[in-house]
Amino acid sequence: KNYADLAKKKIPIEQNGNGRDYINLPRDTNTFIPAAAHNLNGSNGSLDSPVNHGPFSCAPVPNSHFGTPKPALQSTPISSPTGTLRHGHGSGFSESSSSIGDMQENLAYSPYAPSPEARSRLLKPKSLVERARMNIGWLDSSLSIMEQGIREFETLCLRFKYYTFFDLNPKYDQVRINQLYEQAKWQLLNEEIDCTEEEMLMFGALQLQVNKQNEIPQADSGIDTSSLDNAADDDVDAALRELQITLEGPNNGVNAGDITHIPELTDYLRFLKPKKFTLKGYKRYWFTYKDLHLHLYKSREDSRSNSAPQVTINLRGCEVTPEVNLAQKKFNIKLEVPLEQSINSEMWIRCDNEEQYAKWMAACRLASKGRSLADSSYDSEVASIRSFLSMQKPAQAPAINLNPGEIEPNEYLAPRYVKKLKNKAILRMLEAHANVKDLPLIEAKLSYIRAWQSLPEFGVTLFVIKFDGHKKEELLGVASNRIMKMDIATGDHLKTWRYNTMKAWNVNWEIRCMMVQFQNETVVFSCLSADCKVIHEFIGGYIFMSMRSKETNQTLNEELFHKLTGGWN
Predict the structure, then answer these.
(1) Domain containing residue 473: CATH number
(2) Are 547 and 565 in contact (CB under 8 A)?
(3) Quick one: average pLDDT of 275-297?
(4) DSSP-assigned letters across all residues of 480-494
(5) Residue 431, domain member (yes or no)
(6) Distance of CA 558 to CAs 198, 538, 563, Å?
(7) Are 193 and 462 in contact (CB under 8 A)?
(8) Which pLDDT belongs to residue 404?
(9) How many structural domains compose the chain?
């Protein structure tokens, strides 16, 4: 049965009371704002007690949908030379700052703390299912916002939808860096993404450093004020450096005379494959990593004598999750290895120290993406892991003299850690701040973003689904290079499908069902927490991102984007 050949619904047009034509949305869009004047009570802003408006009650629907617009400051289109943004109480915009440059300068900075009104509207999911329900709110990128019921003077929440960020240049992208920093910060503070206690204290310390640097005049705002500024020379130099690294590899010419040399990583580590009804612990093996495979031997001598390994693990396509506790000196790597026509097999590797962990974690991460130790990014991956761990180490004493009572912990730490640490929260955060006290503003924000990207749950968008022929609800995670079947209670990865094994995907708009064809199997499911169009857009969008070249001046192919995400011919 070919899902792509089924007829699409036509979108009827109706007139509103003002005589203007608007599209009355059919069910095959993911809009969460009604296009009719009925049922406008919307959400109560909480995920705890749903209102009686269907299963998607977490959507932030405005109360006055077609009411008379509220009076606002007179404004002109933003595309005009004197365009302004409407602003309300507490906004950073003023009558005098009406140019685009001033607008960018304001968007590059954030208020010290949001208004109580804005914070009260934020949703705080308490489970994986509630996180999945929040994704109903994405608007349809194939339609204009007015076609989806949005009217003038209404408020929208802007977020980066796809977790693939290109060409972040501190010199030119201060606005984009600040937007990413804010999105990362509120994901952590609202517990939309999990992290450990040490990581949360590190994030709080980085946020404190950002706030302190915001009080200091910056020498360079980062906004590009000249049209040239040797940008062409910078691009050429960057391209030459990238070419050199690609040709020489990460070791800058080491073993350059032997093009057959294959990098290898070896060491004694501990290994555990959990099984039901057994209490066996970690067992020590001699590990060798080569050609995307882990080989485990009883001893180093066995590996040298060409004996058969005790265990062999293919790392390509596996899920790699860190399990680190610096206080307890635990450095574990969780592997979820895909098996044919079965759920992932869980395995654990325990390292003895940070240095060992950084090398093996970097190797496993790259191998899961099909990249070996010869890849030029291996050394930078190791350095990134080391930096991430070093920022989590608390200092003996705070580096700045601040009264802990002057800092509101809820503005820096997630609620569960504020509750857990109580009066010690701010002191612990100030100790962690000693590691980042010298960072300038942009570097502090970039460190926050990089640390956010290092979290195990980063970049995974959740949906509650039901597979064809099954009654049980499942959790589906969509990431930049794969989709995952996950445990709906714990979030464990049960099965992984990579985009590079995908042959096609289709949506049956009549029965709201999605079919994804892979090399070895076909997956059919319906989405319960959002419209299937949302999942369709995420998959198509990530595939579009993967087709992007490294040319910084590449133009956006909008036609291809809408072809991959729109679901229409």
Answers:
(1) 2.30.29.30
(2) no
(3) 86
(4) SSEEEEE-TTT--EE
(5) no
(6) 42, 15, 8
(7) no
(8) 66
(9) 2
513 bridge partner residues: 508, 526
Closest by alpha carbon to 45, among 153, 161, 125, 99?
125
Task: Report pLDDT digits (tens) over 482-541.
Answer: 999 999 999 989 999 999 889 988 888 888 899 999 988 899 999 999 999 999 999 999
Residue 444, domain member (yes or no): no
- Would you give the DSSP letter of residue 305? T
Return the pLDDT at 76.
32
- pLDDT of residue 80 exceeding 70, the answer is no
pLDDT value at position 183?
95
Q: Higher confidence at residue 390 or residue 112?
A: 390
| Joined tokens for residue 523 | 């997956």
Q: What span, in angstroms and rounded, lies between the C-alpha atoms of 497 and 153?
A: 42
Q: How many Å apart are CA 152 and CA 130, to the nearest integer?
A: 30
Range of the domain at 343: 265-373
Find the helix or strand (DSSP H, E) in which 123 lies: none
Flag whether pLDDT at 249 surpasses 80: no
Closest by CA to 358, choosing from 334, 329, 388, 313, is 388
Instruction: Give the pLDDT of residue 356.
Output: 95
Average confidence (pLDDT) over 160-172 = 87
Report residue 530: phi and psi, to 5°: -160, 175
C-alpha–C-alpha distance, residues 243 and 218, integer Å: 34
Q: In terms of Cα–Cα distance, which of 175, 159, 182 is closest to 100?
A: 175
Q: What is the rounded distance in angstroms from the CA atom of residue 539 to the CA atom of residue 507?
A: 12
Q: Which two tokens stand for residue 181?
A: 């920093």
pLDDT greater at residue 233 or residue 36 = 233
Determine contact, residues 307/321, Cβ cutoff 8 Å: no
Helix runs in 22-72, H state only: none
Residue 476: CB atoms within 10 Å: 24
Dist. CA 242–CA 234, nearest whole Å:
12
* 548 within a domain of the structure (yes/no): yes
Task: State the Cα–Cα distance between residues 412 and 401, nearest whole angstrom.
Answer: 18
Average pLDDT score over the chain:
77
Tell me: pLDDT of 344 over 80: no
The residue among 502, 506, 472, 505 whose CA lies nearest residue 489 is: 472
Which pLDDT score, from 0 to 100, does residue 201 have?
Answer: 94
**pTM: predicted TM-score of the whole model, two decimal places:** 0.74
pLDDT in the model for residue 473 = 93
554: pLDDT confidence band, cut at 50, 70 and 90? low
Domain assignment present for 509: yes
User: Which of 308, 339, 373 delimits the end of a domain?
Assistant: 373
Contact 195, 454 (CB under 8 A): no
- Residue 451 Cα distances to 201, 313, 354, 387, 428, angstroms: 12, 28, 17, 9, 18
Higher pLDDT, 16 or 143: 143
Burial of 368 (0-12, 13-18, 19+ CB in 10 A): buried
- Contact 57/49 with Cβ under 8 angstroms? no
Of the residues 328, 345, 373, which one is the last residue of a structural domain? 373
Structure tokens at 38: 């009925």
Tell me the DSSP string of 372-384. Answer: -TTSTTHHHHHHH
Q: What is the residue type of 486?
A: M
